[in-house]
Amino acid sequence: MIEFHNVSVAYKKKPVLWNVDLEIKKGSLVAIVGPNGAGKSTLLKAALGLVPLSSGYVRFNDKPLAPREVSYVPQRENVDWDFPVSVLDVVLMSRYKGWFNRITEQDYKIAKESIERLEISDLLDNQIGELSGGQQQRVFIARALAQHSEIYFMDEPFAAVDAKTESIIANILKDLTKENKTVVVVHHDLQTVPEYFDQSLLLNVRKVAYGDVSDVFTNENLIKTYGGRLNVLEDISLEMGR
Amino acid sequence: MLSNTALVLLGTSILGLLCGAVGVLLMLKKQSLVGDAVAHATLPGVCLAFLVVGERNFLALLLGGFLFALLAHGLITLIRNETKIKDDASISLVIGGFFGLGILLSSQVKQGGIETFLFGKAASLLTIDVVTILVVGLLTAIIISLVFKEIFYVIFDKSYSRVIGIPIRLVDSILACLITIVTVLALPAVGVVLVIAFLVIPAACARLLTNKLTSMILIASILGAVFALLGTFLSASYALPAGAAMTLVGFTFFLLVSVVK
């Protein structure tokens, strides 16, 4: 279980997240949705210790986060894709075990299996800049899988990817849930939330609602989250009502 | 004993190897300009060490340069974090301030030798200098190979590195120290003004020639050594400033590679 207690984060005295209380149960498949600047990515980063908290704490199974406990998929823009490394080099990062530890044959095997699962085995030795956006996203997911964690945090894995990549990632999310892993995903496309996810967190600096998608995706909650600015909202709540 | 020429060639080629390898890390970290500021900032440290010790003691000069380089590095970070001044301006400020102080202090150093730190004079390398370069260089190479994975991961993807348990601040500090040590080590041969080119040019050439990090480091090291040897040779044969000769050899090669590639 992941427990957020009273979590607030501020950048230069401006609150980005405010008093978020949240319990994510093991085996959940959660979409975090909300408008730009709602603090979606910050929530993941706060839990991972990548940004300082102004208040509160996050605990994983009643303990602070341990190294390598969470498989993290950062946003694609986070890294320089011109960096002179291959797909395999990037995925092998997940097998890091501390100072002076060497990468073993077993690590190579695990990394290659993950790459295979994301259907990019033919790109193993390619420099990462030679890949399409969707393929780059799959490299990041392969790296997360090869870490063999119980918890997965993914920041916009579906952003600007091709249809094939989208379906591969969607399947992986389902597989991870079947393996009883906990998966938390920042997601921008409201339409696909009911199809891809079981639970959803509606976030706009504060928590608006959290629970099963069918329960929390109400017109009222979505308007509270987005301020009623999106036409798409009504369509979705109608669809959910059917 | 080695002849003076062999000694100088040995010293500069080891420097070339080191600068090539470290230059790759500096360039991939996108810190070339910070590296330039740090190099310029060593001058007052070198002069002060000269004034305090009263003679040209390579280790003391290295130490003085190293301390001022760290000071400059810290100041750039402080200005960036605590004021509204952006990186480019804070780097220019620090170059100006430290280099200005360096020129002022160097005018107070009456004995010969200090001017070699400005533009570099490979021929002035003494046996003890080359031994120092060899020992410090070897230590640097050992440290890089021991923490290579951590350095690569932190430069490439800081957030992910943090999540898999790499102490990114420590790794960043180790890297900053390595870059500073190599920069300071190269000063007497290449000079304050051009040492950054000596670091970046082999790395840039290597980047155009390969897509693999390990090959890039290997190629940059070899190129660094070749540029250093050729530059030293030209410098000795035609009485040219060594730093300028090495840099121009490297820059010409870079232009050729970028046209061909």
Using brief descriptors, characterize the structure shown.
heterodimer, A: 242 residues, alpha/beta, 6-stranded mixed sheet, 3-stranded antiparallel sheet, 24% strand, globular, B: 261 residues, mainly alpha, ABC transporter involved in vitamin B12 uptake, BtuC
Task: Write a structural description.
The complex is a heterodimer of chains A (242) and B (261). By secondary structure, chain A is α/β, with parallel strands linked by helices. Chain A has a domain at 81-148. In chain A, 34% of the residues lie in helices and 24% in strands. Chain A has helices at 40-47, 87-92, 105-117, 133-146, 163-178, 193-196, 213-216, 219-226, 232-241, and strands at residues 2-11, 14-24, 29-33, 55-60, 70-73, 151-155, 182-186, 199-204, 206-212. In chain A, the strands form two sheets. In chain A, strands 5-6-7-3-8-9 form a six-stranded mixed β-sheet, with helices on both faces. The longest helix of chain A has 16 residues, at 163-178. Chain A is globular. Chain B has helices at 4-28, 32-53, 58-82, 87-106, 116-119, 127-146, 148-156, 158-163, 168-190, 195-209, 213-238, 242-260. The longest helix of chain B is centred in the C-terminal third of the chain and has 26 residues, at 213-238. Chain B has one domain (4-260): ABC transporter involved in vitamin B12 uptake, BtuC, CATH 1.10.3470. In chain B, helix 2 (32-53) packs across helix 3 (58-82) and helix 3 crosses helix 9. By secondary structure, chain B is mainly α. Helices cover 82% and strands 0% of the residues of chain B. Chain B starts with a helix and ends with a helix. The model of chain B has no long low-confidence stretch (mean pLDDT 89). The interface between A and B is medium-sized, with 28 and 25 residues.
